[in-house]
Specification:
Distance between the termini: 20 Å
CATH architecture: 3-Layer(aba) Sandwich
Shape: globular
CATH superfamily: Dehydroquinase, class II
Largest sheet: 5 strands, parallel
CATH class: Alpha Beta
Order of helices and strands: EHHEHEHEEH
CATH topology: Rossmann fold
Radius of gyration: 15 Å
Strand order of the largest sheet: 2-1-3-4-5
Helix content: 25-40%
Number of helices: 5
């Protein structure tokens, strides 16, 4: 399936961002985060996006400033953002502010159910900017986020 083409001629595209320590998936606490690598999860998400006619730009950083810069660059170039902010979920007002500034639909993803974990993980600054939040469904959460964002983008274009 060819990527969807808006009136501007630009294919629909989403940015998928992953925060600190997600580069260690498959090694880091597999009983919580699963045995799949970040590459495995991003391949599945990108495959689903392609099936839906959407391009993906996938990135990971352990540095807050990189994530903020990429979010800022997404304004006007991307149609939505999927973000797993990881350890920045409950600490980063800078990422929250960048997401709000982007004016893009945002889906927040967490592999584990953050509400069944330590109390400090229950609060998310990022959720204040998120259109929706998916947590506790493991790596499949990314595929679901792609599907949800595709529907949001399609509805916005209609």
């Amino acid at each position: 399936m060819a990527p969807a083409q808006p009136a501007s001629g630009r294919a629909k595209s989403i940015l998928i961002l992953n925060g600190p320590n997600l580069n260690m998936l498959g090694v880091r606490e597999p009983s919580i985060y699963g045995k799949d690598s970040l590459q495995d999860l991003m391949t599945a998400a990108a495959r689903r996006a392609t099936e839906l006619g959407i391009l993906t730009d996938v990135r990971q950083s352990n540095h807050e400033g990189d994530l903020v810069t990429w979010i800022q660059q997404a304004r006007g170039t991307q149609d939505g953002i999927i973000i797993n902010p990881a350890g920045y979920t409950n600490t980063s007002i800078a990422i929250l502010d960048a997401l709000l500034l982007s004016e893009l639909p945002v889906i927040e993803v967490h592999l584990s159910n953050i509400h069944r974990r330590e109390e400090f993980r229950h609060m998310s600054y990022i959720s204040r900017a998120a259109t929706g939040v998916i947590c506790g469904l493991g790596g499949h959460g990314y595929v679901l986020a792609v599907e949800a964002l595709a529907r949001i983008i399609k509805a916005k274009a209609a």
